[in-house]
Amino acid sequence: MPAETAPPALRIEPVPAFNDNYLWLASRDGLAFVVDPGDAEAIEEALAARKLQLAAIVVTHHHGDHTGGVQALKRAHGAAVYGPAGEPIPARDAALGEGDRVELLGVAFDVLDVPGHTRGHIAYHAPSIEVLFCGDTLFAGGCGRLFEGTPAQMHASLSKLARLPDATRVYCAHEYTVANLRFARAVEPDNAALARRLADSEALRARGEPTVPSTIALERATNPFLRCDEPAVRAAAERRRKGASATAVDTFAAIRAWKDVY
Ligand code: ZN
Ligand code: FE
To answer: What tens digit of pLDDT does each residue of 149-180 get?
Structure first.
């Protein structure tokens, strides 16, 4: 590929905050954008340590652990705030929804509507660098709780993300992976790829390292919420609730409800 058409590389690092949030800091040539800055101070420290200038603030949904630092960061840096059109986002400059495309540090991101966790939740996908920021919709080995949406909406949102290319790296907003995969093992005890992934994730956490990003391929192979068409997942849902194997959405609803009490 000629150099001028090669997509610019972004450095993408997790900034841990609260108990288990990852605020994602993406940078290139001294400029940065941040995804879901729930905590302004954590981002200020990360920017200062790396001598970065904040160019944009990107938000997936309205929850406080994703938006708590937005106003302070905008005030301090004058950075533009991108967020979902369908939710109240503090200091939002660009109201986004499905089909919109935004350019961040020279990289084009497609906006996807992914309702379910919240009604207006969006995700940001950059095909040229195979990166997905998906907030609290798709987690490594799991998915977000249904606070505002229906099982059918969330299942459709996750199915949309599952159709992205295999190599797409999945940058979700929480480190929930080990707990998610322990639940996944209860759903699919005979899934060998899942057993390997759980062991790998436990080893990473034992060393204090993040398990994120994952990839769409790994999620498709091991995340039960993307596997509602698999006979083993259907059967597990049916054992949990009679009739739950009827459709993929019924199966999704049954295992999501099971996870809520697991
Ligand atoms: Zn949330
Ligand atoms: Fe969250």
So the answer is: 999 999 999 999 999 999 999 999 999 999 99
pLDDT tens, 70-96?
A: 999 999 999 999 999 999 999 999 999
Tell me, in angstroms, the distance from the centre of ligand 2 to residue 6's CA: 33
63 given a catalytic annotation = yes
Closest-lying ligand to the alpha carbon of 18?
2
All structural domains of the chain, each given as residue ranges with its CATH number in brackets, are: 4-176 (3.60.15.10)
Question: How far is the centre of ligand 1, averaged over its atoms, from the C-alpha of 7 (Å)?
Answer: 30
Strand 131-135 to 169-172 pairing: parallel
d(CA 262, CA 256): 10
Angstrom CA distances, 59 to 53, 89, 107, 119, stand at 18, 8, 16, 14
